[in-house]
Design a protein that fits this description.
Blueprint lengths: L1 E4 L5 E4 L33 H7 L25 H8 L18 H14 L3 E5 L2 H12 L5 E5 L4 H15 L2 E5 L4 H7 L5 E7 L11 H10 L3 E5 L16 E5 L13 E5 L1 H7 L6 H5 L5 H10 L3 H21 L4 E2 L9 H7 L9 E5 L3 H14 L4 E2 L9 E4 L10 H7 L5 E5 L6 H17 L6
Parallel strand pairs: 4-5, 4-6, 6-7, 7-8, 12-13
Antiparallel strand pairs: 1-2, 3-9, 8-9, 10-11, 11-14, 13-14
Length: about 450
């Protein structure tokens, strides 16, 4: 269905346009490649919550306050000539002409507009997983024989993609660096050869904070594109507003919040997203990591309260980190003043969202880490031993033997991942007093066992 917009910027469904121009809208005969991603945002971007509230609202086909789910895989046309024109690129989603849902789907497209508003980018495209978003954008930016520079400390799946898959399958190599050492980053980048600088805004799992403005400056001086994974810090950090070119997400985490959906997103310039959807050369178009429209609808209903959820995740993480530190445990959290990048994060963060919803406890050995998690789950019900993050329940894992297990021992040591590092994604169920009491009881059991002494 086509769209009509009232003075408030709300979008209502309407009658499908004719491709002949008889509807009196000749200005739209040739597709405006940027407008299909338009968020309807004012030019002045304030913060993620304000941007989301200012984005256009899609109503349902029959006037429902929620948009309709367009579950069709393929779409009809009104005149035979229309299909030829769609495949020629003359008519597109900006005029509500859709071909096939691997290309563009109205429901998924709307979620993309929300993600673009959230990150303050021109465009966004939502994918079937976070890894599909990462791999697609890197393959679009870097061809065979190309070179990238990336942080040593990355999610294990991303590290494996860069270390093993891309060199073998695509002849794309990566130099890994300490992202805190800007001279090392600069020296690793070869002007004219290095196509991408890739890092996580807050690293998985060590919670190292990247200096996004300075790293972006270094990369741009070398002619490279900056790609930042912002999965750990939606709302907290806005990398594109700090100089990054592309922002990727595993939407499965905080943005979803329910641990029930696998999804990803690429947020960046409209020309990049359009190139990724090109019929001949587009990585998204040709690799086909398509998001299901029903998934897109579910996610679009969750994004409006992401800000509220992130504030509570971050608030509780700060409270727990402060209390855990007082117990004498080695806690890592960017909100603590003794964290090496505490002041850096303060200088970059969007105000009032906190310092992130994850903290780490370094128990030094895997045995101690496992014993602590066992007590926290099975004795006091503080949280669950499970990978992933951003769930409303607290999730815990020993990173070295789970989500970072793709890194060998030497790579883990270079990344700063201790064998006993427990990554905790702080949930918000229950009261703070109740949950803290559960942590204290678990820690007391650990001390009684004699395995851990201050």
């Amino acid at each position: 269905m086509a769209e009509t917009k009232n003075q408030q910027g709300f979008v209502f469904s309407g009658k499908k346009r004719s491709s002949t121009g008889q509807d009196g809208d000749d200005d739209f005969i040739v597709a405006n490649k940027k407008s299909m991603f338009s968020t309807g945002l004012p030019s002045m971007w304030e913060d993620p919550a304000a941007a989301l509230a200012s984005a256009r609202h899609e109503f349902g086909e029959h006037g429902g306050v929620n948009m309709s789910i367009e579950a069709s895989a393929t779409f009809t046309v009104m005149e035979p000539e229309t299909m030829r024109r769609m495949f020629a690129g003359e008519l597109g989603p900006d005029r509500d002409f859709f071909i096939y849902s691997r290309h563009f789907n109205p429901t998924v497209l709307n979620l993309g507009r929300q993600m673009a508003a959230l990150e303050g980018t021109e465009a966004a495209y939502c994918t079937a997983s976070g890894m599909s978003a990462i791999s697609s954008v890197l393959l679009q930016l870097c061809s065979s024989g190309g070179h990238m520079v990336a942080s040593r400390t990355l999610y294990g799946g991303t590290h494996a993609l860069l270390t093993h898959f891309l060199p073998r399958a695509c002849n794309i190599t990566t130099t890994f660096v300490d992202i805190k050492d800007h001279e090392m980053v600069k020296n690793a980048m070869v002007e004219g050869q290095t196509k991408v600088l890739y890092f996580e805004s807050i690293s998985n799992p060590t919670l190292t904070v990247a200096n996004i403005p300075e790293l972006s400056r270094i990369a741009h001086d070398k002619g490279a594109t900056v790609v930042v994974d912002n999965t750990f810090s939606p709302m907290v950090l806005s990398p594109a507003r700090l100089g990054a070119d592309v922002v990727v997400h595993s939407i499965s985490k905080f943005i979803s919040g329910g641990a029930d959906i696998i999804a990803g997103a690429v947020c960046g310039p409209a020309n990049l997203v359009n190139s990724m959807m090109d019929l001949q050369h587009g990585a998204l178009m040709l690799l086909g990591p398509t998001m299901n429209a029903k998934v897109a609808f579910e996610l679009s209903e969750r994004i409006p309260h992401l800000g509220l959820r992130m504030k509570e995740h971050c608030h509780r993480a700060m409270v727990y980190a402060t209390k855990i530190k007082k117990l004498g445990l080695n806690v890592i959290y960017p909100g603590l003043e003794d964290h090496p990048q505490h002041e850096l994060l303060k200088s970059m963060a969007n105000k009032e969202y906190g310092f992130g919803g994850l903290l780490c406890i370094d128990m030094e050995t895997e045995e101690r880490a496992n014993r602590l998690m066992n007590h926290l789950q099975n004795c006091t019900q503080f949280g669950f031993m499970a990978v992933s993050l951003g769930y409303y329940e607290t999730l815990m894992s020993c990173s070295g033997s789970s989500t970072s297990s793709e890194l060998n021992d030497e790579e883990q040591a270079l990344a700063g991942i201790s064998p006993g590092l427990v990554r905790i994604s702080v949930g918000f169920v229950g009261t703070l007093a109740q949950k803290w009491s559960q942590f204290e009881k678990a820690f007391s059991r650990l001390q009684d066992s004699g395995l851990y002494k201050n």
